[in-house]
Amino acid sequence: MFIGHFGLGMGLKKTAPALSLGTLFIAVQLLDLIWPTLLLLHVETVVIHPELGGNRILEFKSYPYTHSLLGALCWSLLFGGVYFLLKKQARNALILAAAVFSHWALDFIVHFKDLPILPGQAMYVGLGLWGAPWVENIIEAILFILGILLYLRSIQFKNVLGKILFAILIALFILVQLSNLWGPAPTSVSALAWMAQFQWLFVLLAYWVDHNTKQSGVELMA
Q1: Transmembrane segments in this chain: where (predicted)?
Q2: 160, exposed or middle or buried, with CB in 10 Å at 0-12, 13-18, 19+?
Q3: Which end of the chain is more exposed for a tag (fewer CB within 10 A), N or C?
Q4: Residues near 22 by Cβ (< 8 Å), separated by ≥ 6?
Q5: Which ranges of 155-198 does DSSP label H, i.e. alpha helix?
Q6: Nearest of 173, 175, 162, 144 to residue 210 by alpha carbon
Q7: Residue 219 scores a pLDDT above 50
Q8: In the chain, where the domains are located
Q9: Each residue of 45-67: b (16+ CB within 10 Å) or e?
Q10: What's residue 68's pLDDT?
Q11: Residue 63 C-alpha from the chain's centroid
């Protein structure tokens, strides 16, 4: 699951128009934004199996802090809580907290049984939709397309630059998704982690896009 997470972030703009798309992107992808740094620090681990191909290339050996059920709940509460302390907007804080947890919920649908319930406990869950890649890809594409449509219905571009930046953002998503599906496997865990840091570019682009949009009767907050 990649563009599906970001598709949900775009769709949430309709529900919370005052939130910047960049902030929504951080929320829905927070677990995967933290994960590569923990890989580089050897706090969490993954094994690459290029010989297996498809969704079995990565074997998630240990990611209790970012992708356990308890970890996801803690990050959700932390992100929503920090936003509330800064902005004093309870509704948007709840939306952001739910957006953070949505990442684990979507991963639960697609992952094989490798998502831990609690850190340090050998109980793992996952519905394994990765085992039916065409179904998973169709669902992900639907989430992505619906997200784009909902986002475009919730904003108006103030200038041509906003339209160009949004087009670039969508094109990059598609290129990365195609690379994930048919590109070569990462050469090492470090290479994978650094490649995953590329996701912050989507966040920065999203803030830039939203800076060049306006919402009817709502002033952008964060």
Answers
A1: 21-43, 63-86, 93-112, 132-152, 164-183, 189-209
A2: exposed
A3: C
A4: 203, 204, 206, 207, 210
A5: 160-182, 189-196
A6: 162
A7: no
A8: 3-214
A9: ebebeeeeeebebbebebbbbbb
A10: 97
A11: 16
Would you say how long the chain is, in residues? 222
Which neighbouring-strand residues pair with 124? 116
Neighbours of 20 (CB within 10 A): 20
Q: What is the per-residue pLDDT across 83-119, written as a single tens digit (0 to 9) for each?
A: 999 999 999 999 999 999 999 999 999 999 999 999 9
**Share above pLDDT 70 across residues of the chain, in percent, rounded to a whole number:** 96
| Cα 82-170-8 angle, rounded to 5 deg | 45
Structure tokens at 36: 């590569």
140 token code pair? 């992900």
Q: Which residue has the higher pLDDT, 21 or 219?
A: 21
Sign of CA dihedral 198, 202, 208, 209: positive
In what helix (H) or strand (E) does residue 55 lie, and over which residues does it extend? none
Q: Which of 59, 197, 181 shows the shortest CA–CA distance to 126?
A: 59
Residue 72 burial by Cβ neighbours in a 10 Å radius (0-12, 13-18, 19+): buried
**Is the overall model pTM greater than 0.90, yes or no?**
yes
Residue with tokens 């906003």: 162
Beta bridge partners of 157: 213
If you search the block for the tokens 């709502």, which residue do you land on? 218
Q: Look up tokens 């990365």; give the residue.
A: 176
